[in-house]
Amino acid sequence: MIQNTDKELAAFKKLSLITLIAVYFLILVGGIVRSTGSGMGCPDWPKCFGSWIPPTSENQLPENYQDKYSMQRHEKNIKLANYLSALGMKNTAMRILDDDNIRVEEEFNAVKTWTEYINRLVGATIGFLIFLTTLASFRLWKRNKVIVIMSVITLGTIGFQGWLGSLVVSTKLLPGMVTTHMLLALVIVAMITFLWFKGNGNKFELKGGSLNIIIILSLIALAIQVLLGTQVRERVDVAGAAAVNSGDWVNQIGLIFYVHRSFSIIILIISILLVNKIVKEIGRENQHYKLSRIVAGLVILEMMTGASMAYFSIPPFLQPIHLLLGTLVFGLTFLLFLSMSSEKYQIEVVK
């Protein structure tokens, strides 16, 4: 019986790790979608131009396809605005209905369409993977109910993220919707990281102490930084739509860019402080020290890509790399938080 349970735990661990890697890949692909302006490559959702396999040329579309999908999106947005009004978010509802830009349909572009379609395929694959992970977790109910409960919650969250993605499309990448979509992606990264952590047989027990306080502060700072970065990205989209020369984008973005840039210094200071604190409390010969050094290194690399984007007019190829690095820093910092709060860490400290 124990051997069978160990096999089931190993299977769950493998599935959760594959799912986590796939999520990071999806974030990279999503960054490519944004940097290439392919977010509206498919004007409808979940299908693309009304088909599960998108067209490869404009000849495969009806003559009035722009009016057709513009009207479909408007009808969906009316329903969304009604829901938002009922929830007391009348200003947001009015902004969706009054923004004429949302109803302007873009011309067909095969490259953008297939870029967005690949993004959706990866997202669907992740949904299938987390579904398999959830099924695998049911076999662990007697051994660890937390794994099962968290797996079900994660599956529901990914479903909600997919629905939110449809709203991002229907509102034509409306600022605020994109930010919420990105923040929820961080939540999903944290949830799947937790599942993989538990799949390794680790016990999590939240502890106090200066180390955990520093890590929690780091996680909060990273979430804020991602939020600021998303705001910067939205300003870049606005500048691009206004046909502003790419060399002037930084000036057009305004104060939010400088806040985002300066805040990265705070994150670097926190990451270096964390490395030094681990060295003082538990030394260098442990996984926590190694992981904290990786995080600090990624923060430095993230800052370098950010500086390169600022000085070279935000080149498209750097944008998805910058986004992926930021997400990796958050995910690994969360893993460090889990590791420092685990039973294994408490044993290491005692030794």
Principal-axis shape equals globular
When the domains are counted, the total is 2
Low-confidence stretches: 345-351
SS-based structural class?
A: mainly alpha
Radius of gyration: 22 Å
* Fraction in helix: over 70%
H/E element sequence: HHHHHHHHHHHH
Describe the protein.
The protein has about 350 residues and is mostly helical. About 75% of the residues lie in helices and about 0% in strands. The radius of gyration is 22 Å and the shape is globular. The chain starts with a helix and ends with a helix.
What's the short version?
This protein is mainly α and 351 residues long.
Give structural attributes:
351 residues, mainly alpha, Four Helix Bundle (Hemerythrin (Met), subunit A), globular, disordered C terminus
List the helices and strands and how they pair.
Blueprint lengths: L1 H34 L29 H22 L3 H9 L11 H29 L6 H26 L6 H23 L10 H32 L7 H5 L1 H28 L4 H25 L6 H23 L2 H8 L1
